[in-house]
Amino acid sequence: MIGLNLVYGVAGSVFALFAVLALADAPRRIANAAFYALLSVSFFAGDLLGDFGNGLLVIALTAIAASGRFRARPREASPERPRGNALFAAALIIPATALVGTLLFKQVPALVDARQATLVALALGVLLALGIGYAWLRPGLATPFREGRRLMDDVGWAAVLPQMLASLGAVFAIAGVGDVVGGLVGGAIPEGSLLGAVAAYAVGMALFTVVMGNAFAAFPVMAAAVGVPILMRQFGGDPAPVAAIGMLAGFCGTLMTPMAANFNLVPAALLELKDRNGVVKAQVPTALPLLLFNLALLWWVLS
Amino acid sequence: MLVLAGILVIAGGFLLRFNPLLVVLASALVTGLAAGLDPLRIVSVFGKAFNDSRYVSAIYIVLPVIGLLERYGLQARARELIGRFARVTAGRLLIFYLLFRQVTAALGLVSIAGHAVTVRPLVAPMAEAAAEGRGAVDQGERVKALTAATDNVGLFFGEDIFIAIGSILLMVGVLQGYGIAVEPFDLSVWAIPTAVAAFLIHGFRLHLLDRRLPK
Q1: pTM to 2 decimals?
Q2: Which chain regions cross the lipid bilayer (chain A) (predicted)?
């Protein structure tokens, strides 16, 4: 069955090529090459390394990132050989394949792992677009990967921050951090105050999301502390709006934190912004009123 | 109480501008030790979760395709295309993109757009060109940042209307643990008011962008 094995095979190959090209570059980018090589190993053989082996791999990735030797390449204006509007059609191959694949693959669960339909479609879209690109534009064999590596160098270590935060969440869960935070927040609410409870819940979701970079980590904590015992049981609130609006309050937090690297730091790098936090700053004026809206909506629903 | 030291490490590490990967790893170690975990166990827990979440980083496989098309002038083409339509302002373009992203995400089509797939190669150059076409030459930074912001706002406040998205399944699972049964459909319905509010608030800011750019 086609599933993550295909996606991870493609990703492992792409990062392996990035590593080779970083080594072949003049001057050599040894730190970049090592970083990509480790990611390639993770994609190809992560399941064979064992938990401790994967832990060592993460420590090595972190050491490279912290050494400060991982650098973006000095920008060189790559000579463009302009082509016509067919470029748009080529650019739409990946989104179109993702669209068709997501809808289609769920109908053939025997062939494609339905849970991974989107990622499988994405990988197939990449292969299709590369194939058409080679046939149409006839670039050098290494050109797509050389250009891709240039973009990857810009993204840099921020690429693995979301995975690191997911791992931190796992450690937090075992250490019981959620229970302690939940206890503190729950204890801070004035007895019998609905508005106080709603505010602690919504703002708590946003703040914990800012720290963890992900509302998924905050939801179980805030549900246990305030959502279930106070909003649902004490005030008899309908579970659906309490849960749904709480999660959306968390998403407001995601807009305001550099920890949500894939949404906030990576685009700043891809768009070559001078301010690494430029995207976060552009989002705060939307996130704060929206957080207030969620708070008010939940209060209105419950009272 | 001691386990909260890990949160302090994150906050302090960020303020002191250490490398975020290092800060996260240090926070995991401090938290684990405070909870009395064996250091080897902490490394294993961390490694396992890292391996299990590799799918998050799979998106970078699109970069060779984007890089190739850009080398043959994709960004320049996107700029030219917008230049031909004088009535398309940066704000109007981004409001349209916001709506597109919210509606498609609400249908579960979250991966058909994104920062690497559409923002960098297409939408950002178009928005920049539309702003420049009105004489706003030094606004590139702000317009680009707002383009990325628009993609995020559209995605976050559209996807929760789709019943089979990760966050909905998480909520159902967590509440099930308390013996509370909720239907994914009810959760997705309650995402609609905030989706509308997000469109109005962010859309209004994009409308203001056009006002501030010189005519």
Answers
A1: 0.86
A2: 6-23, 52-72, 84-105, 117-137, 157-178, 198-231, 243-263, 283-302
Host H or E run for residue B172:
helix B166-176
Q: Do B48 and A54 touch (CB under 8 A)?
A: yes
A144, B27: Cβ pair inside 8 Å? Answer: no
Averaged pLDDT, A65-91: 78
Interface predicted TM-score (ipTM): 0.88
Exposure letters A120-153 (e unless 16+ CB within 10 A, then b): bbbbbbbeebbeebeeebebeeebbbbbbbbbbb
**Which domain range does residue A228 map to?**
176-302
The conformation of residue B113, written as its DSSP 8-state character, comes to S
- Residues A144 and A227 placed together within one structural domain of the fold: no
Nearest-angstrom CA–CA distance, A41 and A157: 16
B130-152 pLDDT, tens digit per residue, is: 888 776 667 888 999 999 999 99
User: Which positions 15-44 of B are in contact with A (Cβ < 8 Å)?
Assistant: 18-22, 24-25, 27-28, 31-32, 34-35, 37, 40, 42-44
In this structure, what are the phi and psi dihedrals at residue B43, rounded to the nearest 5 degrees? -60, -40
The reply to whether residue B47 touches residue A56, judged by beta carbons under 8 angstroms, is: yes
pLDDT tens, B158-189?
998 887 677 888 898 889 888 898 888 899 89
Q: Which residues of B touch A149 (CB under 8 A)?
A: 63, 67
Same domain, A109 and A214: no
Residues A214 and A117 in one domain: no
8 Å CB contact of B160 and A244: yes
For residue range B78-133, list pLDDT tens digits in order. 888 887 887 789 999 999 999 999 998 888 777 788 998 899 999 999 999 888 87
- Both tokens of A43, joined, read 């994609």
Say if A45 falls within a structural domain.
Answer: yes
